[in-house]
């Protein structure tokens, strides 16, 4: 089912009146992957249960998506629930399942009005059917939108994604539909969760941790990394814009190099 083309509305402005920096379009990252880290620590530092940090982080995600639209980022991938998060307490897992479901339900129409296409990457097994239903409803409702794509990574893991792709390729080889020597990087890409998702240009993580935590391993092969000290609930679009400015100053060589002799 395709959405009927219609006019979209711009995101709400930042309360401070801040506007995005003027950056040449070719220097704006096409795809930003975000690890929304520090929710639990943010809450605990304020004497609150960990789940209150997750609640506070909802507004940060909305504001960052708004900022992505304003500065021209075309794809945002958000690490909402990892395959490793099942190891958390049953109470926190139940909260996160219900929270992800309810965020999609609450914010689907707003994202749609902004022209955001919502997509889902991740595994079905173990995931609540009600969460899957909300993800698929959001995908159907927003399928025709082109302003920005928000990929919600729920029950997602980078290694799991690559392993699933390898299994699918192995089945094709066993069935005689694919020759082993014909398997290339493009073949693997074809069997990823979202095959048409472009490579990550900017990898952004909050809360001071400097690791990728099994997120977008294949897609982030040449991503530029920016790590924020702020916990996720304290992040807004201005942090994204500063990260984009940092990205625009980076020299991306993709393994190549050019000799620049020192001046004499």
Overall mean pLDDT stands at: 95
* Strand numbers in spatial order across the main sheet: 3-4-2-1-5-6
Residue share in helix:
25-40%
Main β-sheet description: 6 strands, parallel
Portion in strands: 5-15%
Total number of β-strand segments?
Answer: 6
The Rg value, from CA coordinates, equals: 19 Å
Distance between the termini: 65 Å
User: DSSP helix count?
Assistant: 7
- Compressed to H and E, one letter per element, the order equals EHHEHEHEHHEEH
**Which overall shape is indicated by the principal axes computed on the Cα atoms?**
globular
**Quaternary form:** single chain
Content-based structural category: alpha/beta
Identify low-pLDDT runs.
none
Question: How does this structure look, described?
Answer:
This protein is α/β, with parallel strands linked by helices and 264 residues long. It has 7 helices and 6 strands. The protein has a 6-stranded parallel sheet with strand order 3-4-2-1-5-6, sandwiched between helices. It is globular and about 55 Å long.
């Amino acid at each position: 089912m395709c959405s009927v083309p219609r006019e979209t509305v711009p995101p709400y402005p930042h309360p401070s009146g801040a506007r995005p920096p003027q950056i040449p379009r070719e220097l704006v990252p096409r795809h930003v992957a975000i690890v929304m880290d520090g929710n639990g620590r943010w809450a605990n530092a304020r004497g609150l249960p960990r789940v209150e940090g997750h609640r506070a982080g909802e507004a940060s995600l909305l504001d960052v998506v708004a900022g992505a639209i304003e500065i021209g980022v075309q794809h945002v991938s958000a690490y909402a629930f990892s395959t490793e998060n099942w190891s958390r307490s049953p109470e926190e897992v139940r909260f996160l399942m219900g929270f992800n479901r309810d965020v999609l339900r609450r914010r689907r129409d707003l994202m749609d009005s902004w022209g955001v296409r919502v997509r889902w990457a991740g595994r079905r097994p173990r995931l609540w059917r009600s969460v899957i239903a909300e993800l698929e409803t959001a995908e159907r409702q927003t399928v025709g939108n082109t302003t920005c794509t928000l990929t919600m990574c729920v029950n997602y893991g980078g290694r799991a994604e690559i392993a699933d792709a390898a299994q699918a390729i192995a089945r094709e080889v066993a069935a005689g539909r694919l020759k082993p020597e014909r398997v290339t990087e493009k073949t693997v890409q074809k069997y990823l969760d979202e095959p048409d998702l472009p490579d990550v240009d900017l990898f952004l993580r909050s809360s001071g941790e400097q690791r990728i935590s099994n997120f977008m391993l294949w897609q982030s092969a040449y991503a530029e990394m920016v790590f924020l000290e702020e916990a996720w609930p304290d992040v807004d679009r201005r942090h994204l814009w500063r990260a984009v400015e940092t990205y625009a100053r980076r020299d991306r060589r993709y393994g190549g190099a050019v000799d620049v002799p020192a001046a004499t």
